[in-house]
Design goal:
The protein is an alpha+beta fold. The protein has two domains: 37 residues, Ubiquitin Ligase Nedd4, Chain: W (Single Sheet); 136 residues, Nucleoside Triphosphate Pyrophosphohydrolase (Alpha-Beta Complex). The chain contains two helices and eleven strands, in the order βββββββαβββαβ. Strands 4, 5, 6, 7, 8, 9, 10 and 11 form an eight-stranded mixed β-sheet that branches. It is elongated.
Amino acid sequence: MDIKFCTACGSPTEQKIPIDDDHVRSICTNCAQIHYNNPKMVVGSIPELNKQILLCKRNIEPCKGKWTLPAGYLENGESVQDGAMRETFEETMAEVEIIEPYRLFNIVFVDQIYFMFRADLMSDKFGPTNESTDVRLFDEKDIPWKEIAFEVIKQTLEHYFQDRKKGMFPFKIFDLN
């Protein structure tokens, strides 16, 4: 998506390759400010309590009404861990303790990077928010697989349950096409 107007002075931009660059950028026609349009970082957690995973039913598009792990866009000025904890709280009212990084998915076709953490649910206090209509703990056998919102979440859960059986949770990077 092209940036049409300069965020510094409000003038129109034009699409061209800046000197010493190799990508077309939006460059201000007035002040020459270069505007970068980079991928969005999505951060989230796999909250676990007593071998159950906390999922939330989305109350926002896309995929409203489908189940997901709590995740959302990283904010400026926030670490990936803090972002994952914030998103978990915003979507489930649950507090988690981050254990470790678990999965990174490159989703180039939608300009996103998903960074998911293993997390311990700190208590059984959780519930729906403006962003979710339902929040529940699920045993592996009860995961609503056909109602999972995004392929990246489905793959994260599948990997997690496979790794949990082995008792090892290696950090891995995948490309989702």
